[in-house]
Amino acid sequence: MNKPAQEKQWIIDWRDRSNRVQQLLFELDQGNRYSVVVHSEEDKTMFLELFMRPPETAIISPDGGLLNNIRIDENLLLPVSYHGLMTESTEQHIVELFGLSSMNEMETQSLLIKLPSQLSSYQKRLAGFVRSVLVNPRVMVYDSIWGGMSKAQVEQIQRFEGFFRRYSPVHTAVYLDYDTHLNTEIHANQTFIL
Questions:
Q1: Does residue 108 sit within a domain?
Q2: Which residues have C-beta within 8 Å of that of residue 35, sequence separation ≥ 6?
Q3: CA distance 82 to 67
Q4: Residue-wise pLDDT tens digits, 70-102
Q5: Does residue 128 fall inside a structural domain?
Q6: Residue 183: pLDDT above 60?
Q7: Which CATH number does the domain housing residue 139 bear?
Q8: What is the spatial distance between Cα 189 and Cα 153, in angstroms, rounded to a whole number?
Q9: Residue 4 maps to a domain
Q10: Higher confidence at residue 186 or residue 194?
Q11: What is the count of structural domains for the chain?
C-alpha cells in the first residue's frame, strides 16, 4: 500500500470576532518558524483545534502536556509505543536528550521515576520537549512555553530547540503565545496576529 503524499503547506481559515476570515499559510518541511499571537485562551483553543494533526504535530504546553497519574518515563514512552517508534535505543536516546539540558544520567533517572506533580514548570516543559522529539513530528507547536521561566531556563530551552532543529532541520516550529514581541526572540519567518 502506497503512503499518501504529504501536504507541503497547511492553510487555516481563521474567523475573527468581527467575522472576518484570515487565511494562515504554513509552509511545511522548509524549517520555518511561525509566531501565532492570540488574544485569549478561547482563541488559543480554537487555533489548536484547527491546526493540530497528530501524529504530524506535537505540542509542548506550559505543563509539558504530561499525564499527571503516570510517571515521567511512562509519559515519554506511551506516545513512542503508540506510534510504533520504540527501538532498543529509545531509553538511551531519552538519557541523551535530557543530557542536552546538562542533566547527567543519575539526575535523568531520578526525574524519570517522578510524577509530573513533583516537577518544576521548567522540568515539565523539558519532559514535554523530550517526548515530542522522540516522535519526530513535522510540526512542533510551542504553546506559551516562555512564561514563568528564568532567562537561563529560556536559553536552555532555546538550545534544546536548536538541537531538534539540527536533528530535524526541515521541521516547522509554531510559537503560540499572547506576546507580540516573541518573534524577535525566535526569529520568526512570519507572524500571525489573530
A1: yes
A2: 174, 175, 177, 182, 183, 186, 188, 190, 191, 192
A3: 15
A4: 999 999 999 999 988 888 889 988 998 888 878
A5: yes
A6: no
A7: 3.40.50.300
A8: 24
A9: no
A10: 194
A11: 1
